[in-house]
Design a protein that fits this description.
Keywords: Metal-binding, Oxidoreductase, Zinc. GO terms for molecular function: oxidoreductase activity; zinc ion binding. The chain folds into 2 domains: about 1-160 and about 335-390, Quinone Oxidoreductase, Chain A, domain 1 (Alpha-Beta Complex), CATH 3.90.180; about 165-330, NAD(P)-binding Rossmann-like Domain (Rossmann fold). Helix content is about 30%, strand content about 20%. It has helices spanning about 40-45, 95, 155, 165-175, 190-200, 210-220, 230-240, 260-270, 275-285, 290-300, 320-325, 335-350, 370-380; strands spanning about 1-10, 10-15, 30-35, 60-70, 80-85, 135-140, 145, 180-185, 205-210, 225, 245-250, 305, 330, 365, 385-390. Strands 3, 4, 5, 6, 7, 14 and 15 form a 7-stranded mixed sheet that branches. Strands 10-9-8-11-12-13 form a 6-stranded parallel sheet, with helices on both faces. A two-stranded antiparallel sheet has the order 1-2. α13 links the parallel β14 and β15.
Length: about 400
C-alpha cells in the first residue's frame, strides 16, 4: 500500500509499504478514504525526529471503511463506515471509565512514562503505524472506531478523529462563565474550531493570529479577530474593561512565534544524535512559550488558561509568581476523544452545520502530494489552513 512515511527533519515521502495485518482478534483493518495532516504532525516534521525512525507511518486523523475484523470484534462488520479516534483506548479501565481515554491504563506507554498510545505519533506514544495510508490496522477496534452514516461526505465526520473534540475539550476546560468572554490564541485548525465552539456555546470570542487568511476564515463565522502585534494584549484588555477575558485557550503550542533562544534550542536538538536529543528534550525547556505566556498575561484575575496546543519540554520555565498572584487556573492534556462524541455527533450531522465543519479544508489532494502539502502547511503558503489527503484518489 501507499503510506506517508517520516524520513528526517522536514522530509516525508510517500512509499510503497507492506499492508497492515491482523495481530489480535480484537483488531480491524480499514480502507482509509480520508486522512488529514494535523498541526501536531508538523511537530514531527520539525522537532520530534529523535523519537521517530525512518519509515514510520504518520497520521492520526483518519476515517474509512472496515474491510476485515478479528474474531473477537462484535460491534463492527465489514463495510461499516467509521472514524478512528487518534488515541487508542480500551474503554474499560479506571481511566477510560472516567472519561480520560488519553490516559488509558491498558495502552499507556509505560516505558516512556506516557499516556495512552496514539496512532502515528513517535516512540513516546507507542510507535503505532498511522493512518496517512491506504489501509490502517485499528487495535481494540470495537472501542477505537466511531460508526457513522453513509449519506454525508467524509469532511462532515473526519474531524471527530481529533481536532473537533480537541477544540470542544479546550473550551470545556476553559471554564468560561455563562455569557463570558473567551480569547483564542492561534487560528489554525484547532483554533478555528475552538472559536466556533465558543460562539456556539454563547460566549463572546476574541481570536488572535498573525495570518490574514486565518483571521478571514474565523470572521466568516462571526469571530472578532486581532493581528498579533506588540499591542495586542493591551488592546484585548482594553476591549474587556481592562480586566482581560474570562478564559484563554492557547491553540498554538510549542512552536509559537517569538523567543529566538528557544527557537535555536529546538533547531539544535534536531542536529543531535537521537539518544542525546531524546535526553535533552526530557530534561530541557525547549518550547517556545510565547503563546502560553501571552495567555497567562492576558487572562483576567481568577480566570482560566486552557492549553490545546502541544508542549514537549520537560523543564519549561513557568511564570508561577504571576499565576499565583493572578489566581490563574491552568488545564491541559491530550484530548479524550470518545468522551465528547455524544455531544458533537448531533452538531456534525445537523444540516445547518453549526460548527462550520464544511468550512475548514483548504486543500484536498491525493496522498501522493503529501510531501508538498506538509511543506505548504508548515510555511502557511497558499492560504493553507487544513489539508485532507485522499489515499484512494477520490
Amino acid at each position: 500500500m501507499k503510506a506517508v512515511t517520516w524520513q528526517g527533519k522536514r522530509k516525508v515521502s510517500v512509499d510503497n509499504v507492506a499492508d497492515p495485518i491482523m495481530l489480535e482478534p480484537t483488531d480491524a483493518i480499514i480502507r482509509v478514504t480520508s486522512t488529514a495532516i494535523c498541526g501536531s504532525d508538523l511537530h514531527l516534521y520539525e522537532l520530534l525526529g529523535p523519537f521517530l525512525d525512518a519509515g514510520d507511518i504518520l497520521g492520526h486523523e483518519s476515517m474509512g471503511t472496515v474491510v476485515e475484523i478479528g474474531d473477537s470484534v462484535t460491534a463492527l462488520k465489514v463495510g461499516d463506515r467509521v472514524v478512528v479516534p487518534f488515541n487508542i483506548a480500551c474503554g474499560q479501565c479506571f481511566m477510560c471509565q472516567r472519561g480520560l481515554q488519553s490516559q488509558c491504563e491498558t495502552t499507556q506507554v509505560r516505558e516512556q512514562g506516557s499516556g495512552a498510545a496514539l496512532f502515528g505519533y513517535t516512540k513516546l506514544y507507542g510507535q503505532v503505524p498511522g493512518g496517512q495510508a491506504e489501509f490502517l490496522r485499528v487495535p481494540l477496534a470495537d472501542y477505537n472506531t466511531i460508526p457513522v452514516g453513509t449519506d454525508l461526505p467524509d469532511e462532515r465526520y473526519l474531524f471527530l478523529s481529533d481536532i473537533l473534540p480537541t477544540a470542544w475539550q479546550g473550551v470545556k476546560y476553559a471554564n468560561v462563565p455563562e455569557g463570558g468572554t473567551l480569547a483564542v490564541m492561534g487560528l489554525g485548525p484547532v483554533g478555528q474550531f475552538v472559536s466556533r465552539v465558543g460562539r456556539h456555546l454563547g460566549y463572546e470570542v476574541l481570536a488572535v493570529d498573525p495570518v490574514p487568511e486565518r483571521r478571514a476564515m474565523a470572521e466568516r463565522h462571526g469571530i472578532e479577530t486581532w493581528d498579533l502585534t506588540a499591542d495586542t494584549t493591551a488592546e484585548l484588555k482594553e476591549r474587556t474593561m481592562g480586566r482581560g477575558p474570562d478564559a484563554v485557550v492557547d491553540a498554538v503550542g510549542m512552536e509559537a512565534h517569538g523567543n529566538p533562544v528557544a527557537g535555536f534550542a529546538q533547531a539544535a536538538v534536531g542536529f543531535l544524535p537521537d539518544a542525546i536529543a531524546r535526553k535533552a528534550m526530557d530534561v530541557a525547556g525547549i518550547d517556545r512559550l510565547a503563546a502560553m505566556y501571552a495567555s497567562i498575561d492576558l487572562v483576567r484575575r481568577g480566570g482560566t488558561v486552557s492549553l490545546s496546543g502541544v508542549y514537549s519540554g520537560e523543564a519549561d520555565v513557568m511564570p508561577i509568581k504571576t499565576m499565583f498572584d493572578k489566581q490563574v487556573s491552568l488545564r491541559m492534556g491530550q484530548c479524550n476523544v470518545k468522551n465528547w462524541i455524544d455531544d458533537l455527533m448531533p452538531l456534525v450531522e445537523d444540516p445547518a452545520d453549526p460548527l462550520g465543519v464544511t468550512d475548514l479544508v483548504t486543500h484536498s489532494v491525493p496522498i501522493d502530494r503529501a510531501p508538498e502539502m506538509y511543506e505548504t502547511f508548515q510555511k502557511k503558503h497558499d492560504g493553507c489552513i487544513k489539508v485532507v489527503l485522499k489515499p484512494a484518489g477520490e
